[in-house]
Design a protein that fits this description.
Shape: globular
Strand content: 15-25%
Helix content: 25-40%
Order of helices and strands: HEHEHHEHHE
Distance between the termini: 31 Å
């Protein structure tokens, strides 16, 4: 899909996964994992493979929530089990740093990044309806329907209200 819809002459797309990266040893200046680490079934294998392709002095940038640092966001108030589900889905900071330290990659920084997810509650609700957040995969259709009904009532009361702006974690390893 990315090749067909976002082709760029300076970009090459290759099929692979975290435990089987189709790059030569020590060939990447940096590795970015953006909201994807929780989808890696074998994080230790993924960390080893990332360490293999990373050049000496390179950096790994992981943008991900960590279970032990989650506080919840605007949309989660409408879906009562969302935070509990996410704390089970996402690894803790210690689990992540542990698998990367085991392959020689140490924590360089942990940065809190301020993010605005949408310009208004109405925009945030429209984005959320796309169900691009994997949390929804762990909810029943009844839970989801009831959550959207609560969210719709909230948005109808003040559609221009700003939804949450929040902090997210960026872990830098090297």
């Amino acid at each position: 899909i990315a090749e067909a819809t976002a082709a760029h002459p300076a970009v090459t797309y290759r099929a692979g996964d975290a435990a089987n990266i189709p790059l030569d040893d020590s060939s990447a200046d940096a590795v970015l994992m953006f909201l994807s680490l929780h989808h890696v079934p074998d994080r230790a294998a993924g960390a080893a493979e990332i360490a293999r392709v990373l050049k000496p002095g390179g950096r790994v940038l992981i943008r991900s929530p960590f279970a032990d640092r989650m506080t919840g966001g605007w949309w989660q108030q409408f879906f009562p089990r969302a935070l509990e589900i996410e704390r089970q889905m996402f690894p803790t900071l210690g689990e992540v740093t542990g698998v990367f330290e085991a392959v020689g990659l140490k924590t360089v920084a942990l940065v809190s990044v301020n993010e605005t997810y949408a310009a208004s509650a109405a925009e945030a609700a429209a984005k959320l309806r796309l169900r691009a957040i994997s949390t929804f995969e762990h909810m029943t259709e009844t839970e989801i329907g009831e959550g959207f009904a609560r969210m719709d009532a909230n948005v109808a009361a003040d559609p221009d209200a700003l939804p949450d702006t929040g902090e997210s974690d960026l872990l830098v390893l090297g």
